[in-house]
Known about the structure:
The complex is a heterodimer.
Chain A: H1 2-64, H2 68-76, E1 84-90, E2 96-101, E3 120-124, E4 128-137, E5 140-150, H3 152-204, H4 218-294, H5 301-332, E6 337-341, H6 342-356, E7 361-366, E8 371-375, H7 376-393, E9 399-409, E10 412-419, H8 451-461, E11 466-470, E12 476-480
Parallel strand pairs in A: 7-9
Antiparallel strand pairs in A: 1-2, 1-5, 3-4, 4-5, 6-8, 9-10, 10-12, 11-12
Helix pairs in contact in A: 1-2, 1-3, 3-4, 4-5, 5-8, 6-7, 7-8
Chain B: E1 6-9, H1 13-25, E2 32-35, H2 38-46, E3 62-65, H3 74-83, E4 92-96, H4 101-109, E5 114-117, H5 122-139
Parallel strand pairs in B: 1-2, 1-3, 3-4, 4-5
Helix pairs in contact in B: 1-5, 2-3
Amino acid sequence: MHQVKNRSIVEKLTRMSMLVSGIALLLACVSFIAFDMLTYRTNKVRSLSTQAQIIGSNAVSALLFNDPQSAAETLSALRAAPSVVSAGICTLDGRVFASYSRDAHTQVIVPPLLPAGEAEAHSIGTEQIDLVRLIVFKNKATGIVWIRSDVQELNRRLQRYVGIAIVVLLASLWAAFLFSSTYRKEITGPIVGLAEIARVVSRDKNYSVRATSAGSTAETSILVDAFNEMLAQIQERDKELLTAHSELEQRVRDRTAELAAANKELESFSYSVSHDLRAPLRSIDGFSSALLEDCGPQLDQSGKDYLHRVRAASQRMSQLIDDMLNLARVTRRTMERETVDLSRLAKSIAGDLSKEEPGRQVEFSIAEGLTADADSGLLKIAMQNLIGNAWKYTSAHQHARIEVGRVKHNGGSAYFVRDDGAGFDPRYVERLFGAFQRLHAATEFPGTGIGLATVQRIIHRHGGEVWAEGGVESGATFYFTL
Amino acid sequence: MDLRTILLVEDNPDDEALTLRALQKNNIRNEVVVAHDGAEAIDYLFGTGTFTGRNIEVLPQVVLLDLKLPKLDGLSVLRKLRADPRTKLLPIVILTSSIEEQDRLSGYDLGANSYVRKPVDFNQFIEAIRHLGLYWLILNEPVPARRG
């Protein structure tokens, strides 16, 4: 495509220069020829007038003495002027007095009439020029002389001029063509080069190439320089972009490595905690139990009480370790989203709780058709914590109601778990989701303070939000989005 | 009734004492051989090292295997035992503190017959040992001895 365009530029340039020089020459030739023809004709008429005057004055005596012979002789002097076809003298009454013709066979024409009051008149035809002149002697008209001249010389001259004009025109066109082919290289060369460079740049995305401006005209030189400048800027930007990109990649790699290392450390930490932290607790609990059994009789009531406290504490610590590990596991676990039947999940958790404590009177109200796009394992842990909490914090009430449903929230929907239990002091709502943070004494409601922290982590991992509403002894509602 | 031995692979002397106490509390009278690391367990079962000359035809009825062990860890012991035709079918119960997913997975993957977590609550531990004894020493029919 670009080659066609380039070719047309070259063609147009050649054509333009030829056309301009052709038109200029043509106009010059035409005006010159026209001017020359006009001048020549004026001169011709003037010379015919002179000849007519000479003949007239020479023929005066012949007219006065009625000597046509002598008049004819005078006329015959016109032989010296080969363009004169015929001539004649006539009397004032229009009688032909004497005549002359260049060739024997030439018809002597009737002289044209002289307009009244005029001493001389001429008429120019396509083939001849006629001139009529009054012969005046001592201010008295004595006759009329006329001369007819052909325009062959004029025509020949015209032909010659036209011929020359054509030759000059052709020669100049040829010269224009030659020159433009020489100069067009100079003009279009850099443009073609530029186009080639542009093609290379767009094809290879190679911004290091440069167009050369050698032999360019001022404009193309500016164009080439601007193009090169643009390429340099693009190249610079490209380089900067590449550097920034690779820096970014490096940073991402570094961060990923750091993260992986941190993850690995966390993993080995949890592994170690899982294995090693529990073993001493087992010893504490086990040997306290052994002490109670084997040396029970030797211990008084408070001694036994202390040992029971030691056992309870070690079991509590064991629960803390488990919860902590679960919390860490929730963060580490890979997530796979799928459609989860939340209603069924909630019902199964409610069923498990009711089975564990069949004596409790808890009314479950679980909305039908609740589905969520979430990791089923993680969502289960979150729901176990939320419904488990509701179960736990309604334990002091004779009758309890636990509700699971969905409400509209910010154009989307939020799930909720609501209970009518002990609730919480809304002033400390911020602390609800912190790990190991509790708003109730362990003697009132048992727990390690990990549950809601775990829920929050799970919800955050899903890109959702979790928040709570409630008041002291007026129940609690936990909302979450996924 | 000829009581076969129980091989307890346990490096922690506290856990050893507690396990022995739990067995005793459940009236399990089988002889308990304690290996204090993985290498010792292998030596006992294959009659090598300090156990050179032991009649290795006599296999324990069940192996209680801890995972975190000095020298050779529990999973390596398991791998070695399952790779050897003599101990390929030996009942092995992993008895450990951890319920880490990766441990349970590799334990079963390497051919453990059971995976039991040692509870911190000693009463629960006694209960667990009771179930283990009942199952592996009484209920479970052992692999018949190979002939020839």
